[in-house]
Amino acid sequence: MNTRRNGLSVAGLLAALFVVFSFSGGTAMAQSAAGAAKEKVQVRFTWKLKGEYAPLFVALDKGYFAAEGLDVDLAEGQGAQTVLRLLAAGTENIGYGPAVAAAQAVSQNMPVKVAALYQTRAPMGVISFPDVPLKTPKDLEGKRIGISVGETFTDMLEPFTKINKIDLSRITRIQMDNSARTSQFLSRKVDVMSVYLSNELPVLEQRTGVKFNVMKVADFGLNLLGASYYISNNFARQNPGTVAKLMRATAKGYADAMKDPKGAAEIMNKYMKVKENPDVLLAQVKATVESTNAPTGRPIGWQSENDWKTCLDLLMATGAIKERKDIGLYYTNDFLK
What we know:
Elements: H1 2-37, E1 39-45, H2 54-61, H3 64-67, E2 70-75, H4 80-89, E3 94-98, H5 99-107, E4 112-117, E5 124-128, E6 144-147, H6 152-163, E7 172-175, H7 181-186, E8 192-196, H8 200-208, E9 213-216, E10 227-232, H9 233-238, H10 240-259, H11 261-271, H12 278-290, H13 305-318
């Protein structure tokens, strides 16, 4: 009797161990399969890592992309036009950068589209040293400004002066390479310089210890479309679910950054290849979230036809685009519904 009971006990123990082993092994296999099932997605930024990219890194760090089944790689880039050409050629699928560049690409028949717009008013400004008056566009008259081919405000200077009824002939434009603008401004060879408030301005103020005068151009009618997702048309057609998941997770990252800019800046600094001054990153993140497109009753990133029409009007007026396509070719809200 004892032998039989012991045999049954051993058999029962072995069976229990088998069940436990099978369950834990099965769980591990299931977890492994779940990890393997995550879809790899690469987002190509149009420039090097900086504070204005923080909302996407918040989504990455907090697992919002992973929760959507995405394994997202956030990669640095070498300029908006380069990224857009890669998308058009099918070498890349998704980019992140200023929508105004995408508008130019679409007008040149590139098969790309903006899938979400995070800034309807790009955070761009014109700055001067404290002893150089600069409050309104009228103050540009009599000033020297450094201009460069391809630099956004340079391209928009003429329509900006028309909008604000100021005399362009009274602004001294000094042509220079874009890389030289900052040094020329700091050495006082020019009086004013255009900057992005979400990138260059915090760096300059931290480096120099100067609190510059700032005129926000969007406050005076220059409404250019800023941060956005670019999507290859072919990829969007073939992977609508993937794009929608990416937009949904990114919106959560933006919402968190808007609630807690300091926390977003701290997350961003974890991913910086070269660590940035925390105050600079925080200023960049604050400028980013203050200009974030979050329309009432719509998802973060929702795009309006009027905003696009305004931007395209400006681009046509400057000659930045030669042809205006059907509005539906430039953007879509289909992935935000």
